[in-house]
Specification:
By secondary structure, the chain is an all-alpha fold. The chain has a domain at about 5-60 and about 130-150. It contains six helices and no strands.
């Protein structure tokens, strides 16, 4: 197993969340690689520091704002298509008596809606590809966030 793969698995290794075979391979690699062993020691120190921090609950309005955001609803697939969302749909307004334009030899014209869909589904763009964060970056970010919350 190479260092790059081990670094991806170190967080799960530290949390005892690896399958036995992966755990065995990571353990064998850690016995021979000082760089990965040092990274694991750093992760362990970060875990110990974080465990000493007091638990802080965010403001309930922040929680509501995050979990009701369109981005979160899109990620979880729980986008609400009722009520307010329907007001944004484009619905074609067809004339009651359309003009007759069935001239022989003339091609049949079909209206193609522009912009939003005319069917009752929300117009959501697929999520853009996001950067995949490795476990070291996530742990560092978590430590910085925890330190910021303590100092604030």
């Amino acid at each position: 197993m190479n260092c790059e793969r081990v670094e991806e698995l170190l967080s799960a290794y530290l949390d005892n969340a690896l399958a036995f075979e992966e755990w065995r391979e990571v353990s064998a690699h850690l016995q021979t690689c000082t760089k990965c062993s040092a990274t694991l020691a750093e992760f362990s120190r970060n875990d110990a520091l974080i465990s000493r921090l007091p638990r802080v609950s965010p403001d309930p309005t922040l929680r509501n704002r995050i979990f009701s955001s369109p981005e979160f609803l899109e990620l979880t697939g729980t986008f609400d298509i009722s009520g307010e969302a329907q007001k944004d749909w484009t619905v074609p307004k067809l004339p009651a008596n359309p003009p007759h334009r069935d001239t022989p030899g003339r091609p049949q014209l079909v209206a193609i809606p522009g912009g939003r869909s005319t069917t009752p589904t929300p117009s959501i763009q697929p999520p853009s590809p996001r950067q995949r964060w490795n476990s070291r970056t996530l742990r560092t970010l978590f430590v910085v966030l925890a330190a910021t919350m303590i100092l604030a």
